[in-house]
Design brief:
Blueprint (H helix, E strand, L loop, with lengths): L15 H5 L10 E9 L6 H12 L9 H12 L3 H12 L6 H19 L4 E9 L4 H10 L4 E6 L6 H15 L7 E4 L7 H18 L4 E7 L3 H5 L4 H16 L6 E6 L12 H10 L4 E5 L8 H17 L4 E5 L6 H14 L5
Parallel strand pairs: 1-2, 1-3, 3-4, 5-6, 5-7, 7-8
Helix pairs in contact: 2-4, 5-13, 8-10, 8-13, 11-12
Length: 353
Amino acid sequence: MSLFTAPRYWSGPPDPQALSRHPEPKEPGPVGILFINLGTPAKPTVKSIRRYLKQFLSDPRVVELPALVWQPILRGAVLPFRPRGLQEKYQQIWLEQGSPLLVHSRAQVCAVGDALTEAGLTAHVELAMRYGEPSIETALRNLHKHGCERILVVPMYPQYAASTTATAVDAVARVVAKQRNQPELRFIKRYHDQPEYIQALAQQVQQHWQEHGQPQRLLLSFHGLPTSVVEQGDPYHRDCMETADSLAQLLGQDDDFVQVAFQSRFGAQKWLEPATLPTLQAMAQEGLTHVDVMCPGFLADCLETLEEIDMQCRAAFLQAGGQRFGFIPCLNGDESWAFGFSQIIQRYLGGWV
């Protein structure tokens, strides 16, 4: 065939009249709101936990080691053994409806959706897990089916970290990268110091004190990170401290009463300090008998709050001489927080609704 011969499937130039036609303007459809939480095993079994850990710990934003170094360790030393140790822990906290993280996240998202509806907003909400199910891809597909061409992505992490918020953004971008007709996207980066969030935390604390009395110390336990991550510019530690300062101020307490610690260490790296469990032991040894612990970095109760804090840390504090250990639950499906969360979200919907 000649280089100047058109292929047989060519249908000729487009019709100029067709190009000049103006179709009726398309309605933008409802706004989509995609909530993303970390993730959870589907079942409290070794097989399910191993599948979850493989996906979670293979994320280069979670474990910042070269794959050639980390993957042999993960597959040879972590995945064959760690799921067995976690099985009993998950079984201790598992709810009849399923994983606490998933159950409480769903309740929270539904409550926020109701609050948005009451505010007169036409929006469709979906919950996704960064690791596990429901997947981000499935949630985005559901939003597309509902005609959502404008999507606000809401990570359920009040404080920003590359290993949580950023990896959720990455995952959304990878899914959208495969689409020809991409939706318009907005992302909420953080809300660690927003008045509605701080007020919800303070209300949770005050309600606990009304029922159980005020302790001698309130410990705010945030999820830990390797120190090297913060040294490289991750703002997570700063966000946590700003949350703690804002909450202490609203509660009318000083830094001696409201203290900060970091939990959930993993691996041999140096992590943010002080660590939660040794801090509680030291408090008991110093003569404190009544301590409350709250986890402001988690919007929904999960393994790290229910088993690590309310079981492990409770036992450590009492064994070290403490007498009263108060665990303050996460915000979960609290209606007042759902209303506050909806207000934060509405500020990011400007021009869309």
